[in-house]
Amino acid sequence: MTKHPRVRMTLVFRGRVQGVGFRHTTAQLAASFPVAGTVENQADGTVKVVVEGAKDACEAFREAVRIRMDRFIRSEDLAWGEAAALAGFRIIH
Questions:
Q1: pTM of the shown model
Q2: What is the largest CA-CA distance in the chain?
Q3: pLDDT averaged over the chain?
């Protein structure tokens, strides 16, 4: 069985994404996927999510966040990169 390479996905969500439980919900959703990463409010009112795992797991996690938090998200930016061996998933305060 071939091991899927780990990738890094960076998402920046815009909209009414702060003060609505976005970080907490994102961290809860991450527990359901084989991913690691962080979620953090940004000074400009956006929320940044960095997640690492197999590409399909990252994409499934992204879709779960989008479905769950759709009413708060106006837009998002997505960037792919190389994984840096993150472990666990945490909220950055």
A1: 0.94
A2: 44
A3: 95
CA distance to 1, 36, 69, 80, 90, per residue, from 28 (Å): 30, 12, 12, 22, 10
In a domain, 85, yes or no: yes
Q: What residues contact 56, with CB distance under 8 A and at least 6 apart?
A: 4
Structural domain harbouring 80: 6-92
Q: What pairing do the DSSP bridges indicate for beta strands 73-82 and 6-15?
A: antiparallel
Question: Averaged over 74-89, what is the pLDDT?
Answer: 96
Residues involved in catalysis: 23, 41
Residue 53 CB neighbours (<10 A): 23
